[in-house]
Every structure is written in C-alpha cells, then in structure tokens.
Write a structure and sequence with these properties.
Elements (H helix, E strand, L loop, with lengths): L1 E3 L2 E3 L10 H8 L8 H8 L3 H14 L21 H13 L5 H10 L11 H10 L26 E6 L3 E3 L3 E10 L5 E8 L8 H13 L4 E4 L17 H9 L2 E4 L9 H14 L8 H17 L11 H4 L15 H4 L2 H8 L4 E4 L5 E4 L2 E4 L8 E7 L4 E6 L5 E5 L5 H5 L2 H6 L3 E2 L6 H12 L8 E2 L1
Parallel strand pairs: 3-7, 7-8, 15-16
Antiparallel strand pairs: 1-2, 3-5, 4-5, 5-6, 9-12, 10-11, 12-13, 13-14
Helix pairs in contact: 1-3, 2-3, 4-5, 5-6, 7-16, 8-13
Length: 457
C-alpha cells in the first residue's frame, strides 16, 4: 500500500469477490466529492467496479448493493432478435390452442424468420408464461368407477356400444345400438336410430328400459368412452345422467380400459353379425320395421343360431338361465327402484375441476353454479357432500369455500321423459310429432295398464 497526499493507494485486487462492506465503501465517498478513480486507488478495486457499485447505490440505494447470482433477468427471449418474440406473440394470439412445440414448428416453416436462430421449445414456453399467454393447466381427474371384475356368470355384465352410422336403404344414415351379455353371448337388445348429428343421449335410457323389461337388470354394464356415454370435453368428467341413472338403479358402470377391438371384441363381432343378419341387402320401409327386423334376428341368434364360440349351440341352449337376471324391472316401478343414497355414495368418491367465467359461473353436470364476481376466472376444486347433498367448491390455492345445493339429481331428473307419464292421468302430444314424442309413445306402451289410446296424438 502507498500513500499519495491524503489518499492511500492499495495494490489492485484481481480475481477476488467484493464484500457488501466494500461495495458500500465504494459507493458512499462519491457524495463527499471523491472521484471514482480516487476511490479505486484507495480501495485497490478497478475504476469500473467502483463505478458499477456507485451507480447501483444511486439508483436503488443499499438494496442495489446486494449480491445477485446469475445473469440479469432480461426476458426469456432476450438473447434473440426482437422480431422472434413478436412473431411468437402474434402466432399465439391468432391461434390460442397452439402450444410451444407447435409454435416452434410454425416458426421453422414460416417465412418471417427465415435464416434466424430460433429459441427452443422450453424458451418459448417460458416466454408465453412471462407474457401472460400461457394456458392454465387443467387437473385431470378420472370419473369414479369400480375396478372391473371379470364376469363369471350370465347376466353379470352386459356390453353396450353404438355401431358407426351406415346407410340403410331409403331411410338414410342409421346407427344401431347393441347390447349383449358377456358370458352367454346373449343379444339383449338391438335398437336403430336415425343419425342426426350424432346420437341423442335421451335414446340410451329408452333402449336400456326395453332390454331391462325383457331380461331384467344386470349387475354391471360395460361402456366405451363415446360422448353418448362419457363427457369427453373435460379432463375431470362429471358422470352423465345415464350413468347416474344406472347407478341409482343398482347397476354398476365400468368403462373399458383399451380401445376396441382389444376390449369389447365380442361386441365388435356382434355389430358385424347383426348388420349382416338384418341390414345388408335389405330395404326397410321405416325405422319401426327395421327395429322389428332387428328384434327378430336377435331372437334367432339367441335361440337357434349355432354359435361356433359356444360349440355349435345357441346362447339360450347353453345358458338357459341367461333368459332373465332375476332382478325384475318395470317402468312403473322405476321411481321405487331408484336409490338416491347409492348415487350420492358414488358421487362422494369424485373430484372435479372447473374454471369460472367473468361472472364467476361454472358448469357441472349440465347445471350452472356461481361463486360470485370475486371468484371470476379462478379454478374451482369440487367435491360432493352426500349428507347434505351439496357440492363444495374450493377456490384452488385459497381457503375460500362455497356450498351449492345439488341440481339435477332428483328422481324426477333421473327418470326424464318417463316421470310425467307415471304421474299424470293423461298426456297429450302436440302435432307434428317429434323424435322425443316417439320415445314417449314407446314408453307409454311399456307401462302396465296403459294403452296407446291414453295418449292423445
């Protein structure tokens, strides 16, 4: 160390780390008129280091002297030209559904950034996050369902599936819903529906009621993940009314774990068999005639057709007990057969996630609930309280809870079109008749002590 006048000059410090006290010593003397060069000579640090910490102190005070690890935070795409970030933003705002990987591929193929070095998928994801353009992840929660045991006896488990649409003569596009017993191979129902932008979920209970009336209630029904049976629009799907209705009737519902034909292989073969038996080469006058033809062919397949999988015998020849499950069903008994406690216990096993809108509203099971404007655009975790029959909505990441009386879970809701037919002395249909009127007419014909004359059509 040397002294020049009143300034002590220390030897340069290279390769050393400056302590907080030394940074403070570099910054404060500037206010007393000492220059950066004089302070550098006095402390042994370079002029650049003294200047750096003096400026940091002037801009942020003592907080500016705290150590900061790593490179300065300048943005996820700060190492790339500004037009890269601009193009990412433009593409994402134009196509909100495109993720980082899609955006990167579009940048590579597009002419806007030809020849430019592009960021990685991770950098684009970080940029979307810091710009507020990232989508909030939705929690994936499976619908509650029992572990599917293997069927051992006839009527343990039915398979249900809708065959893809097919042209049937002058009728147009038709989809056929088939049901079959997994053990005995018994055809428990085949129902034709005109294809009108897909199948109506209201058709399924009618088809099942017809089969229950003839063969009784099975222990289980196996379904695939088609939208007619399962809410494919949500990552945490709420049970459809069909599922809740079956559970309340005491019929367990299981969903196949593998796509056909790895699962429901028998049903896939059954589609082909019934089409060959009743549709191929036939010209049916109307949907009623086709339904009667399908019913006749099911009777033939169940009682007379020599099935190779059953050693050349028909299902009812090998399994005569498959003709009825022993659990009788009639539409007029349905209100008494429905057990809401069974359904509530089923719902209590579930958990669902929904996002609210600007008004704080969200939808669950086709019903609307509202947590208020203070809960706008927030994720809600939903559970069901079977004791109070209420849904509990918890705002994710907070301790805020809301309780809502459950909607759409009464016996009247579950019975749907059947309920008024069993509670009104007369039921008049208005012209022109609709597809829904056709279902009501079929239901009325199934009721004991009721004739088609009871319905004024």
């Amino acid at each position: 160390m040397a002294r020049y006048g009143c300034i002590e000059v220390k030897m340069p410090k290279r390769g050393k780390k400056m302590s907080y006290e030394e940074r403070l010593a570099c910054a404060q003397p500037a206010q007393a008129g000492i220059t950066d060069r004089q302070q550098a000579q006095a402390t042994g640090w370079s002029v650049a280091a003294v200047r750096k910490w003096r400026r940091a102190y002037q801009q942020r005070g003592a907080a500016g002297l705290a150590p900061v690890m790593g490179r300065p935070a300048r943005g996820a795409l700060s190492a790339f030209p500004a037009q890269v970030g601009q193009e990412v933003r433009r593409l994402r705002q134009t196509h909100p559904g495109w993720g980082p990987l899609t955006l990167l591929e579009e940048l590579r193929q597009g002419p806007a950034l030809a020849g430019e070095v592009l960021p990685s998928r991770a950098r684009i994801a970080a940029y979307l996050q810091e710009q507020g353009l990232a989508r909030r992840d939705q929690r994936h929660e499976e619908m509650p369902a029992p572990a599917p045991p293997s069927a051992q006896q006839p009527q343990d488990e039915w398979e249900m599936d809708a065959q893809g649409r097919q042209q049937v003569g002058d009728l147009g596009l038709v989809s056929i819903v088939n049901l079959a017993d997994g053990v005995s191979h018994l055809k428990t129902g085949s129902y034709a529906h005109l294809w009108q932008h897909g199948l109506s979920g209201a058709d399924d209970p009618l088809d099942l009621r017809c089969s229950f009336l003839r063969f009784g209630l099975p222990l289980r029904i196996s379904l695939d993940h088609e939208s007619a049976f399962y809410d494919n629009t949500r990552l945490s799907p709420f049970p459809t009314r069909l599922i809740l209705w079956l559970v309340a009737l005491g019929v367990e519902v299981v969903f196949i774990q593998k796509a056909p034909p790895l699962a429901h292989a028998q049903m896939e073969r059954g589609h082909q068999t019934l089409s060959a038996q009743a549709v191929t080469g036939q010209d049916w006058a109307d949907l009623v005639a086709l339904g009667q033809g399908l019913d006749q062919r099911c009777t033939f397949l169940n009682t007379r057709y020599p099935s190779r999988s059953l050693g050349g015998h028909a299902p009812l020849e090998v399994f005569p007990e498959a003709g009825h499950s022993g659990r009788a069903y009639r539409p007029e008994w349905e209100e008494q057969l429905l057990d809401l406690h069974r359904m509530d216990t089923f719902l209590a096993q579930g958990r669902w996630f929904r996002e609210t809108n600007l008004q704080g509203e969200f939808w669950l099971g086709m019903q609307r609930y509202n947590v208020g404007r203070t809960g706008a655009y927030t994720p809600q975790e939903l559970t069901f309280d079977p004791l109070t029959r209420e849904f509990i909505a918890k705002t994710v990441g907070t301790n805020r809870f809301h309780r809502f009386a459950a909607k759409g879970l009464s016996k009247m809701d579950l019975m749907g079109e059947l309920f008024p037919l069993t509670h009104l002395p007369t039921y008049q249909l208005a012209l022109p008749l609709t597809r829904e009127d056709g279902r009501r007419t079929t239901l009325a014909g199934m009721l004991t002590g009721t004739t088609f004359g009871d319905i004024d059509s």
